[in-house]
Amino acid sequence: MSLARGWIGGQHRRPELLVPALLGGLLLLYFALPFVTFLARVGSTPILEQLSTPGAQGAIRHSLVTAPVSTAIATGFGVPLAYVLARRSFPGKRLVEALVVLPLVVPPVVGGAMLLTAVGRFTPLGSAAAAVGLPLTGSLIGVVLAQTFVAAPFVIITARAGFGAIDERLEQASRSLGYGPLSTFRNVSLPLARGSIIAGIILTFARAMGEFGATMMVAYNPRTIPTQIWVNFIGGGIDAILPLALALFGLTLLVVAALQRVGRLPTVVER
Q1: Residue 5: pLDDT band by 50, 70, 90 thresholds?
Q2: Span 233-255, pLDDT tens digits
Q3: Model pTM?
Q4: Residue 257's CB: how many other CB atoms inside 10 A?
Q5: Is the N-terminal amide bond of 222 cis, ω within 30° of 0?
Q6: Distance of alpha carbon 146 from alpha carbon 116, whole angstroms
Q7: Closest Cα to residue 79, out of 152, 151, 147?
Q8: Please, what are the domains in the chain?
């Protein structure tokens, strides 16, 4: 009761926050309702028994292999691109920015179809890769390609925001003290933008783990957790997808917690 009175009293002191708080509270309730109703069905489902099936174990294994690889690729190439976009103006920059955003606005299934026109087995690139034993579709490589296509923009956009928030005078001071461009980037820019980069990595990984549309088009097999969930849903309805859905949710939460822990570790800046 004291907590409720304190909250109400706070609202009386800040009446301008009452309507935003109520609207935001309704949205939070809407977010929470599906989780509550979904988890309420867990008690009657043999979770461990269904997770021990070959299909479920294979899907979990494939997701645990491909999502980290996709996230690493997106981070390794995306963070430098984000820094360039935050610090430089150049001809065609708007086109580059549009290319970064396009995978976010294109429906994943359409994105998968577009990937097929570029790396499908009958394309020059796809046939050349298949000839050397590295098929770009219907393989784990295809899964990584699909996940990277749809998930990489998250780390680019958030990292760019982090780099853009850094006072450029700090980087200039580093250069004036004798640090080179790469050393300044590694020891000044990256640590200062770490929070945004970590947030981007989390979003990228979560998107890669949950990717379905583009993956289904490019590599329906081997199945990841989302594609196996779809197969289970077609065959048995909602109760059939509960075990894998919980596994996906739990794996994502573990990685988010781990990355947040890493993001709080102190950074040692060395020359």
Answers
A1: low
A2: 999 888 889 899 998 888 888 87
A3: 0.85
A4: 11
A5: yes
A6: 10
A7: 152
A8: 52-264 (1.10.3720.10)
